[in-house]
Specification:
globular; 1 helix; 135 residues; signal; Peptidase inhibitor family I36 protein; G_crystallin-like; single chain; alpha+beta; 4-stranded antiparallel β-sheet
């Protein structure tokens, strides 16, 4: 009987160990993965996919595996973000504002388009708003 009781206790302990992690807090998902004070780019829409989190300007997103891959972003900095079409802050720029409007999906024309990020100014020649995408 002691062996049976010991075996049952061991099984109960093993089950408790399996159940406990499931009750732990859920890991952040989507946009919520972006830490406060960072500018984040995501390879998927709505903050999904791979993510990079920046605190400084980045001249070449290829070094971080995000060159021409971003589809959404969230600006959690206090600065305007300038997204450059080409590496080393060349080509045209689009802007992501700080604050509540600085989160969302890129216009379809600008998905998988950006190659460098400037935190703060100056920007360059505007890439403009694609025709039919001004809403």
């Amino acid at each position: 009987m002691r062996k049976t009781m010991r075996a049952l206790l061991m099984v109960a302990a093993a089950l408790a160990a399996v159940v406990l992690p499931a009750s732990a807090a859920q890991a952040a998902e989507g946009y919520d993965r972006c830490p406060d004070g960072h500018y984040c780019m995501f390879s998927g829409l709505d903050g999904t996919g791979d993510m990079i989190a920046l605190t400084a300007s980045t001249p070449d997103l290829a070094a971080l595996g995000m060159d021409d891959r971003a589809k959404s972003d969230w600006n959690r900095t206090g600065s305007t973000i300038y997204l450059w079409s080409d590496a080393n802050y060349t080509g045209c720029t689009a802007v992501t504002s700080a604050g509540p409007t600085g989160k969302g999906n890129f216009f379809p024309t600008y998905r998988d388009f950006f190659s460098s990020v400037g935190i703060g100014g100056p920007g360059g020649l505007s890439c403009g708003t694609p025709p039919g995408e001004d809403g």
